[in-house]
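Weekly modeling sync, notes
Attendees: S.R. (lead), two postdocs, one rotation student

Agenda item 3: backlog of single-chain predictions. S.R. asked that every request posted to the team notebook include the full sequence so nobody has to chase files. The rotation student volunteered to paste the first one in as an example of the format we agreed on. Action items at the bottom.

Example entry:
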Amino acid sequence: MKNALAYMKAYYFIDFEYSRVIGKNDDGSDILELYPKLNPDIKFNYQQYIIQYPLHKTDKYNVSKNYEEVLWIKKYADVYQRTLGKPVNTDAIWEAYQKTDFTQTSFLEFLRTTDYVISIPPNSIPEFSQKIYAMSQAIAEFPEISRVGGRRIDELPYQFENQKDLSRAYFLSNDFSFNEETTLQQLTQHYQYMKDTGELK
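Predicted structure, as returned to the notebook:
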């Protein structure tokens, strides 16, 4: 347990506390419930597992944690509400998250199915590019993750209101230095591409 708290502090530069043991994983290691000392509402799972084919003899164990995922679900709704005026049903998302098999999908794929998808009107792309960038800046200042730069802007899912397939959502590329200008550029180029390929109504 002390190793887990030390690991999390070394990574995020804040203090964490132990809550309880939830169970054991397939390798026989305890699955711990921890939380950041500054926000006890963000309870997450931490566990060690054995690396099957380590590159070095010292790399016997790896760590699995869902800290940032829990933080996203529990705390990002306030940023969405303040910036977009968009209510997010965090209870429903949390329930769906707990039922999802993440050995079969990724957290980003999961986000595509939630209220966290930002719906952009076609005539409001410049306005929404500013809002998306502002959201990324607000999230980066969360004290729970501010020391590691926050979650990246390319992890905010979006779609266009007039796209034909509203079951699809997209993410900005992380190949650019993000600012308002590059955010607008990416959204504009993507919208034009979807228009050219007949994916818009």
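Discussion: group reviewed the output briefly. DSSP finds six helices and six strands in the chain.
Action items: rotation student to repeat for the remaining queue; S.R. to check formatting next week.
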